[in-house]
Automatic annotation (TrEMBL):
Residues 201-238 form the AtuA-like ferredoxin-fold domain. This is Uncharacterized protein. Transmembrane segments: none annotated. InterPro entries: AtuA-like_ferredoxin_dom (IPR056362), AtuA_N (IPR010839). Residues 15-143 form the Acyclic terpene utilisation N-terminal domain. PANTHER family: DUF1446-DOMAIN-CONTAINING PROTEIN, PROPIONYL-COA CARBOXYLASE. It comes from the Eukaryota.
């Protein structure tokens, strides 16, 4: 199955402040100028309460300069008929993020005329930090479960059902090396066999995996085809347990 690695990947979840954002749309004559006036107002209101906060706020005008890395040339002709101002801020605490959204909503009554479609929000920002750590410095645990198996006709009986249970290494050693279920005549039997120990084989020949991620969260599962092989997998693969 390959040599044991001395380092493993550690994924550590860490908070990175609070994010606040707001959007507002403008269209028609001087829509760009009105959006820029909105940006100036929000930044001014925030600066009155939190001095120096503007360095944590970025903005762009969707439909004008949102796809450019730098400001566009003011001398270039433009024919924008509808645009949307978006402002984002990454703040130190929740109070600042909420205050930002309130100031943005105030554009309805205190901003240039014709603005609409305001949307705002705030959330805690979480990042996933990755680093290599020594295997010997990581505490980890492995558990396994065995699913309930029954015949398709749902005639459950103690002879043809394997009860669901959670077990650890001590129980794994007591499991039989072959599991045979009672089936109707002519039906194929389910047989399990341990992974050969006298030669190297690909990991996918003795187990399968499932993985998924959403944002900064990641989940990974390694499932042996033969349950008692979990003890052997522990010797070559380990995952840090994060609380």
């Amino acid at each position: 199955m390959g040599a044991v690695k001395h380092f493993i990947l550690l994924c550590n979840v860490r908070g990175k402040g609070w994010k606040g954002w707001g959007e507002i749309s403008y269209g028609g004559h001087q829509c760009v100028e009105r959006a820029k006036a909105d940006e100036f107002l929000v930044r001014s209101w925030m600066e009155e309460v939190y001095s120096g906060i503007n360095k944590h706020i970025i903005s762009d005008i969707i439909g004008l300069d949102s796809l450019k890395a730098a400001s566009i040339d003011e001398d270039l002709p433009r024919d924008s008929q509808d645009i949307r101002l978006r402002m984002d801020g990454l703040f130190e605490n929740k109070e600042q993020a909420i205050h930002f959204t309130k100031e943005f909503i105030a554009l309805y009554t205190n901003g240039p005329a014709g603005g609409g479609g305001i949307s705002t929000g705030h959330k805690k920002e979480i990042i996933l930090e990755k680093a290599l750590v020594k295997r010997k410095d990581v505490q980890w645990h492995v558990t396994a479960t065995r699913n309930k198996i029954m015949q398709s006709d749902d005639l459950a009986s103690p002879k043809n059902i394997i009860q669901t249970s959670s077990f650890h290494e001590s129980v794994l050693r007591s499991l039989p090396t072959e599991t045979t279920l009672d089936h109707k005549e002519g039906a194929a039997q389910i047989q399990l066999s341990p992974t050969p120990h006298d030669r190297k084989i690909p990991l996918y020949d003795c187990s399968h995996s499932r993985a998924g991620d959403k944002g900064d969260d990641i989940n990974f599962f390694l499932i042996p085809y033969f349950p008692p092989d979990i003890g052997r997998l522990k010797k070559i693969v380990s995952f840090p347990h994060l609380s």
